[in-house]
Specification:
2 domains; six-stranded parallel beta sheet; Rossmann fold; alpha/beta; seven-stranded parallel beta sheet; 421 residues
Length: 421
């Protein structure tokens, strides 16, 4: 048999799997309905609720790198002695090693195996940071009461691939401008308005507390003399390493400063050839380091200045560590994102000039001067205060407010008539 006849391209394969998953899920719910009818008959006509086996609260994480977002929420549920399940697609998720009494961490598999479980889950409230619900493989389960999206970084709700948040019931936000973006998208697409709750950002709260504690015990010392420069881009065709990889790294090496390169974790999966080439050309040395730590706290703390593009880490750096950054002045292609639907510029692009210094490709040759100037720019400090006021609501309270909202939604679900046979 011609092997080409058996070939299915990745796009078609993904579509076929989506169809199969949908069919399997539909079959599951039909079977579940039949079982409920059978229980109804065997119980002598007593009503049987589909919610009898429902998990009250599920937190879903598609990657271990979002544990910093979810841990404060898990800690809050543990503190309140309320049971919650944490479902993860990472076999080495730090949550699996936590010693909780009321938080049950479960590895649900990777890829399609995980989506198969998600699509038939029976839960009251599901909290997730994963976009694309009901768009591709991850389908809404008929046995879930409500889906809540939690942001994994400050910034725009439109900085998701198109339709990323359309099918969530609620979105937890950290700035009032984010609600306006949601409402504008809803009007354009005719989407049912989603609930919002101004909670704040969980991981920023814990990171700030950690940083303040280390400053208080004297473990953070200001370095004199040589600077440490952190190159921390996002990934994709318009990102720094894709556009200027060898050129910008060479320019940074020429400064004589210590250079730390921390690519986005997705780069090592989606841009493996690029990463291999750059790491081969610029190997580890006394002055150059490649960082892949799951926790970015130490490299952010160590560096004097950061160079980035559209990575959300710039907000961690500016808002928590109160330090300047340089951003590559490249044209952002918003066509794949929800932002393309709106005429107004993204908040991230509007705030950038207040908190960072733009760097053009033609300035790579004088990048040392740009770095030295940015480190001493006092105007950026005022810009960081402006950014905090606009995008970081309720500092220190995000985990409490998130747990409060989840409990409120569960109580609302329970007050509604139960599904019965």
């Amino acid at each position: 048999m011609n092997p080409l006849l058996l070939y299915i391209d990745p796009g078609t394969g993904s579509m076929l799997f989506t169809i199969i998953i949908g069919a399997v899920s539909a079959g599951f719910f039909i079977l579940q309905k039949f079982k409920l009818k059978l229980k109804f008959l065997l119980s002598g006509g007593k009503s049987v609720s589909v919610n009898a086996d429902r998990i009250p609260y599920v937190i879903f994480s598609d990657s271990k790198r979002y544990w910093n977002v979810f841990k404060p929420v898990c800690d809050e549920f543990e503190k309140r002695k309320i049971d919650v399940e944490y479902w993860t697609m990472s076999p080495d998720d730090p949550a699996l090693s936590e010693n909780y009494s009321h938080v049950r961490a479960v590895f649900i598999g990777e890829g399609n195996k995980a989506f198969s479980k998600l699509n038939i889950m029976n839960a009251g409230v599901v909290l997730a940071t994963t976009p694309g619900l009901d768009v591709l493989q991850w389908k809404r389960s008929k046995n879930v009461g409500t889906y809540i999206h939690i942001l994994h970084q400050p910034g725009d709700t439109t900085f998701y691939r198109m339709f990323g948040l359309d099918h969530y019931d609620s979105v937890l936000i950290s700035g009032e401008y984010e609600e306006k973006q949601l409402r504008d998208i809803e009007k354009l697409r005719g989407i049912k308005p989603r609930e919002t709750c101004l909670t704040g950002i969980t991981y920023l709260d814990t990171m700030k507390a950690r940083y303040e504690a280390e400053k208080g015990d004297g473990s953070i010392d200001k370095k004199a003399g040589e600077k440490t420069v952190l190159l921390a881009p996002t990934w994709g065709e318009t990102a720094i390493l894709s556009r200027f990889g060898e050129k910008i790294i060479s320019a940074l090496v020429e400064t004589g400063y210590e250079i730390i390169i921390r690519p986005h974790p997705q780069s090592f999966e989606s841009e493996k050839e690029l990463m291999d080439r750059l790491q081969t050309k610029f190997p580890e040395s006394d002055k150059l380091h490649w960082n892949r730590d799951n926790d970015n706290f130490e490299v952010l703390k160590k560096s004097d200045i950061m160079i980035t593009d559209f990575s959300g880490v710039m907000f961690d750096y500016a808002l928590i560590f109160d330090r300047p950054f340089i951003y590559a002045d490249i044209e952002f292609d918003k066509s794949p994102y929800d932002a393309a639907w709106l005429d107004e510029d993204m908040w991230t692009l509007r705030i950038l000039p207040y908190i960072g210094i733009p760097l053009k490709e033609e300035e790579f040759g004088t990048i040392k001067d740009v770095i030295d100037s940015a480190v001493n720019d006092e105007k950026l400090a005022a810009g960081r205060d402006k950014a905090r006021s606009e995008t970081w609501a309720n500092p220190g309270e995000a985990a409490v407010r998130t747990a409060d909202y989840m409990i409120k939604k569960y109580e609302e679900i329970n007050s509604q008539p139960q599904t019965q046979a």
